């Protein structure tokens, strides 16, 4: 019987170790701000992202058609990376299948992933500039 107890205890420790590792990886991913979407590489791509967000938020088929058409144009013009196209296409596909809630959440996450990225050609953050610290007036 000691063999069964030893095996059971070993199994519990192994399972506990795997669980602890998984939780650690999840926490590390959340704390590091894991991106689910690539940076958008052009102003036109950002405009497409806004259009897609609007289409998904309003569940507007016409706007979704416009977004898909725009995505294809940008791809032809070389203004979308392969990773951007995959992300946009996944959102459009979810909306087309009637899963507007997932499409909306994914479009919002893609937009959120862009905060602070900036346009690579400009090397600037997309966040508004902060005002410099000023010393208070002496009255």
- How many distinct beta strands? 0
* Low-pLDDT segments, ≥5 res: 23-32, 118-132
Provide mean pLDDT, rounded: 76
**Apparent shape:** elongated
Q: What is the number of helical segments per DSSP (H or I, 4+ residues)? A: 5
Helix content: 55-70%
**Which oligomeric form is depicted?**
single chain
Structural class call reads mainly alpha
Q: Rg to the nearest angstrom?
A: 23 Å
Structural commentary:
- With 139 residues, this protein is mostly helical.
- The chain has a domain at 43-113.
- Helices cover 65% and strands 0% of the residues.
- The protein is elongated and about 65 Å long.
Please specify the SSE layout and strand pairing:
Blueprint (H helix, E strand, L loop, with lengths): L1 H30 L11 H16 L2 H16 L5 H15 L3 H14 L26
Helix pairs in contact: 2-3, 2-4, 2-5, 3-4, 4-5
């Amino acid at each position: 019987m000691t063999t069964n107890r030893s095996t059971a205890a070993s199994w519990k420790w192994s399972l506990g170790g795997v669980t602890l590792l998984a939780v650690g990886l999840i926490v590390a991913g959340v704390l590091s701000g894991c991106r689910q979407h690539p940076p958008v590489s052009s102003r036109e791509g950002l405009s497409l992202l806004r259009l897609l967000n609007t289409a998904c938020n309003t569940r507007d088929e016409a706007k979704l058609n416009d977004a898909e058409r725009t995505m294809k144009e940008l791809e032809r013009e070389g203004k979308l990376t392969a990773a951007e196209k995959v992300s946009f296409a996944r959102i459009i596909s979810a909306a087309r299948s009637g899963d507007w809630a997932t499409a909306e959440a994914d479009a919002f996450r893609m937009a959120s992933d862009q905060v602070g990225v900036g346009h690579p050609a400009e090397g600037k953050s997309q966040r508004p500039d902060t005002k410099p610290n000023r010393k208070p007036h002496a009255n």
